[in-house]
Amino acid sequence: MKAEVFYPRVAQIFADTPHERHRRMAHLHDEVVAWYLGRVGSITAEAAGLRCPEGRTLAQVVGHIMEWDRYFVISAGEMLAGVEWPGIMAKERYVEIDGASGGYRTLDEFNARQAAKHAAWPWPRIQSMAVEAATALHLLFTSAGLLTTERLEATRRYDWRVPDGPRITIPVGWFLWMVTLEHESVEHEKELSPEA
Questions:
Q1: Taking every pair of C-alpha atoms in the chain, what is the biggest distance, in angstroms?
Q2: What 3-state class would DSSP assign to 140?
Q3: In 10 A of CB 36, how many CB atoms?
Q4: Which long-range contacts (CB under 8 A, 24 or more apart) does 85-89 make?
């Protein structure tokens, strides 16, 4: 999804009442996950090995998105447990596949660590884990009784500036939901587009 469509749409959604916001975010998530899963599912092993302009292979880009989706799943679990400020907000409490946990100093450090790891992974492993993580995240945010309006509203408030738009203060649960969608659809839209 193009940034010029996504961000104004999210800004409008965030201006809604919490219950209407949840309904509209779930609809947007349905759109995003359908596009993302369709794209990831169509990538062949040959295409996954091709280098993107920024240097990573397409498999590493999908692995990068998958690791952030895993981190958002971990954060969703924290919010389900009543945590008001998930560890992701302080670059903490990330859990690797082997159970090792910790943090990182910068986003670049986290991304470089994941790219190095995924360089050695076969495409089918990355592809299946990406589908699983995105599907789990979608279910956590959109299924009744999980990350409800009330749970998202119970998180600490966060100040976010819409790119080329207004500053919005919103509970961090809503912000994290938006970031999951932004990452799957906007940030890597060029690498994931069929024309790439």
A1: 46
A2: helix
A3: 25
A4: 85/155, 85/156, 85/172, 86/155, 86/172, 86/176, 88/176, 89/158, 89/172
Q: State both tokens at 136.
A: 């789990």
pLDDT of residue 7: 95
Other beta carbons less than 10 A from residue 183's beta carbon: 17
Domain that holds residue 164: 3-192
Check residue 178 and give its pLDDT: 97
CATH no. for residue 116? Answer: 1.20.120.450
95/103 Cα distance (integer angstroms): 9
Tokens of 99: 């159970």
Task: Please determine, for residue 196, whether its predicted confidence score (pLDDT) is greater than 60.
Answer: no
Backbone angles phi, psi at 129, to 5 degrees: -70, -35
Number of domains in the chain: 1
Range 23-35 average pLDDT: 98
Tokens, residue 168: 């919005």
